[in-house]
Every structure is written in C-alpha cells, then in structure tokens.
Amino acid sequence: MRLDIRRGLLLKVAYPLLMLLGAIMPGKKEALQAFVIRLNNRLVLRLGIRTSRLLLLMPHCLQIDKCNIRLTHNVRNCKQCGKCAMKDLIGVSDRTGIELFVASGGNLARRIVEDTHPEAIVAVACERDLSSGIADVYPMPVYGVSNERPCGPCLNTRVDISKIEEAIALFGTGAPGA
Fold it and tell me: Cα separation of 106 and 52, whole Å?
C-alpha cells in the first residue's frame, strides 16, 4: 500500500479542520464532506493503481426497508427481487469477480476491510459516512461514490450502478482476469 502524502494531508489534517468549520457552519458540512470525497477520488486516481483485488463496500441502507433478509453477513442471501440495487450490485460482482460486502456501520466496514485485505476499495455511502470512512482506513486507497437519498438518510437509498462500474474500470478491472 503506497503512502501518499497529499492524501494523508487531506484526510488527517484538512478533513478534521473542514469538519470543525462544518460544525460552525452546519449548512455547509455536507458540501465540505463531498469536496473531501471528490478531492480524495482525484488523488486516488493519480496513484495509478491497477488491481483486480478490489472490494465493493456498500451500506445496508441500499436494501429496501421492507425486505426481511439481512445481507450484512452474506450478500448472497439476497433473493434478487430487483426492488433495490442489490440485485444489480451482485451482478456487477459476479461479472467482475470483485468481492461485494454490505456493512451496517463503520465498525463492520473496518472489520470487512481488515478481513479481506483488498488493494483498493470502491465504497458507497452518504457523504458523512463516506468521508469519515475514507479517512479511517487511510492509507488504503478508497474511491467513494455518494448514494442518493430520496427517502432521507439511511432509508431506501440508491446508487447509480454505472458509477460503480466506472469506478471499477478506473482500477483497470472490469472482468475476471482484466
């Protein structure tokens, strides 16, 4: 894992300062978190990492709240009804051979990262969880994709699958053996 000083300064110095500023100006906090995610993504891409040892890490809120099946322990328990993004994410995982996990929070997400030893991560979450998660696992390269929240935070969120596929392709991966 390459140590990138610019990302380190962003995530360990600038990010906490920006969150302090966000606490003073609460209406700007999410925009500041989104800024950190965008800048981090640019810096991750500049590393030029090419790997098939990616981890797809998704939040549990992508699963519809009416579903009785919990996917945080095994995403393959999904019945693939198509009512949420999980069916499509499993399809992406199957096509690319990239491991897919669902986390219910930061502690579980960190444990998944520790257990799977990826070379890089494509992660989806809200700006708050994504920005803090990216900072928590530094120097691990994480490319972040913000979720869409039509029902508000933590409930029936969505993700644009094409953004996930684009992020995977940025790491030179798109199919097994790629």
Answer: 24
The mean predicted confidence, pLDDT, of the chain is 93
How do 142-146 and 120-125 pair as beta strands?
parallel
Domain ranges in the chain are 5-170
CA angle centred on 165, ends 68 and 151, rounded to 5°: 40
Phi, psi of 73 (to 5 degrees): -95, -30
CB atoms within 10 A of CB 78: 18
| pLDDT score of 176 | 45
83: left (phi over 0), alpha (psi -120 to 50) or beta: alpha
DSSP character at residue 12: I
> For residue 29, how far is the Cα from the chain centroid?
19
